[in-house]
Amino acid sequence: MKLSRALAVTKKQFLTIRHDKRTLAMMLLSPVMAMLIFGFAFGTSPKHLQVIVVNNDKGGLASEYINKMDHDVLSISTSSDVSVSKDKVSSGDKIATIIFGSSFTADASPTKSGITPRGPIITPAKGAHINVYLDTTNQQLSSVVSQSIAKGGQDLAKSKGSKSGVSVDVSYAFEKAKDARYIDFFVPGIMAFAITLFTTLLTLLAFVGERVTGTFDRLRVTPATETEIVIGYEIAFGIIAAIQGALILTVALLVYNIMVVGSIALAMLFVILVAIDAQAIGILISAAAQRESQAVQFLPFIIFPIFLLSGIFVAVKSLPLWLQPFSYLLPPTWGIDALRDVMLRGWGLEHLWPHILILAGFAVVFTILAIFGLKRSRNQ
Amino acid sequence: MDKKVVTFSGVVKEFDGFKALNDLSFSINEGGLYGLIGPNGAGKSTAIRIMTGLIKATEGEVDILGYKPQDADVRPLVGYMPQEMALYQDLTVRENLEFFGKLYSISKKDLKKRIADLLDFVELSKWDKTIIANLSGGMKHRTSLAVALLSKPRLLILDEPTVGVDPELRASFWQRFEDMRADGTTILLTTHYMDEARRCEKIGLINHGRLIAEGTPKELLILTGTHNLEDAFLSLARRKKEAKS
Prior knowledge:
The complex is a heterodimer. Chain A is α/β, with parallel strands linked by helices. Helix content of chain A is 63%, strand content 11%. Chain A has helices spanning 3-19, 21-42, 61-68, 82-90, 104-108, 139-160, 182-213, 215-220, 226-256, 264-286, 292-297, 299-309, 324-328, 331-345, 349-376, and strands spanning 49-55, 74-79, 96-100, 111-116, 119-123, 129-134, 167-172. In chain A, the strands form two sheets. Chain A has a five-stranded mixed β-sheet with strand order 2-1-3-6-7, with helices on both faces. In chain A, strands 4-5 form a two-stranded antiparallel sheet. In chain A, helix 6 links the parallel strand 6 (129-134) and strand 7 (167-172). The longest helix of chain A has 32 residues, at 182-213. By secondary structure, chain B is an alpha/beta fold. Chain B has one domain (4-244): P-loop containing nucleotide triphosphate hydrolases (Rossmann fold, 3-Layer(aba) Sandwich), CATH 3.40.50. Chain B has helices at residues 44-51, 93-103, 108-121, 137-149, 167-182, 194-197, 217-224, 229-244; strands at 4-15, 18-29, 33-37, 59-64, 78-81, 155-159, 186-190, 202-207, 210-215. In chain B, the strands form two sheets. In chain B, strands 5-6-7-3-8-9 form a six-stranded mixed β-sheet, with helices on both faces. Chain B has a three-stranded antiparallel β-sheet with strand order 2-1-4, covered by helices on one side. In chain B, helix 2 packs across helix 3 and helix 7 (217-224) crosses helix 8.
């Protein structure tokens, strides 16, 4: 082996990178971006989780309890109407409703019920309890809320010198999802992520391939319009995505026995919408790549934001407030949210039509941009 | 008066300040066989890309069969064979032809007949089910020509159509071009085979984005006092350079 020849290869590679400024920029930017997003996504614990307190307590103990809760973790609003508050949990607006009964203080205190020669008759405290109406479809958030409620009770008991805490009666907004495991929460996220990744990559490589081999120019001198080309690709990748989604779902059902409370067909519709968004993104990005090698460099900029910000691992509501708007700019965020609503909450079109509109809106905007991008190259 | 199929009038094309075409003017009559001849980088491919509507001229006027090159209505009337193969490598010969045929909205029955005819012409009937990636360079070129002929175009633009084609088949290509001309098809081609350029009805010699001479092969030889088109081109290029300095 001659080291000089090996070093010649090394030098050639660095020269290539030096001449390709985009590669250089990507090489430096992608790890920095990955670490920053990773740090923000995983480095912060959930905060500002929205719960409602219905305080019917005739004493003052419930107020003390509420004050003991961590107000950084829980964003507490109050209501006097139990039914309305529960509806807000059932509709996904809030994670929990915490209900203090009218006898909360009384139940926590021993009472004098008479006098005997030996002294007063003391009836032991019944034991205070609260009712919590909880949404468990997002395990990460519901467990943080549960822990915060429990800790508030423990801190209150400690401050009163009581050994017994406050018992918590939990009822579930989505009864079927009360036994949801982490994988049940995780699979919808992975479905949307896998479809986004495959579809973006396939479209990106297909379009760059069309440009590199000259077939794209050949297509454009035929009567086929840019709109027809993009729509043709959308149909193809929509079908491929549906097959991939069906395979992922089948494996998840057969091997991991995941929970699907709602309609599988509706879940597939969301998979297809996510795929259409992803392929339009792929076409958009392909305009900036001259070669396949350049196209691949864009992938970290797709994968990391989606992986870390769209709610696959970390719930969007757990992210720092300033980062959350970026999450909602990513189509998979809406896809994952909708898939979880279908699979864990069992929601149908009556609840999820806004998600369909948003994903379709992304698809329309990205498709128009992709078509516009292709047409623009004719005017260069 | 002859009907013009292609007209370039004072066409300029700039790329980042570089003039790839500089006041290029020429025209092709209906049924003509026009050869655009010049060295690499002369501007031939840029002219073709403008003609096919793939890019737009920075200045000047271009007319193709009475349309602007970017009009959608002109596309069914133009056949284009690019210099690179521009075929789907993972599809078979027949699948490529069927795909492009559908883009031209050719009926199923007509398409089947045309494909059979074209496969016979490019001598690929036995290879119709072969994946393009597995074909030789010449075979890919022949498939590419077949795709360009699919729509029975009124204007056929061929960028280096006979590269990698053996002499016998090349002769058959030229025969086909002559037959198409006789049927009224107008053909523009680029080639660096000067002996082939002699077969064109008219030649435009292009250098540095400008047309340096135009005429029949015979006229160009007489004009330069040379015996072949290669020498004619070199002589004309030298004269232009001297006139400039």
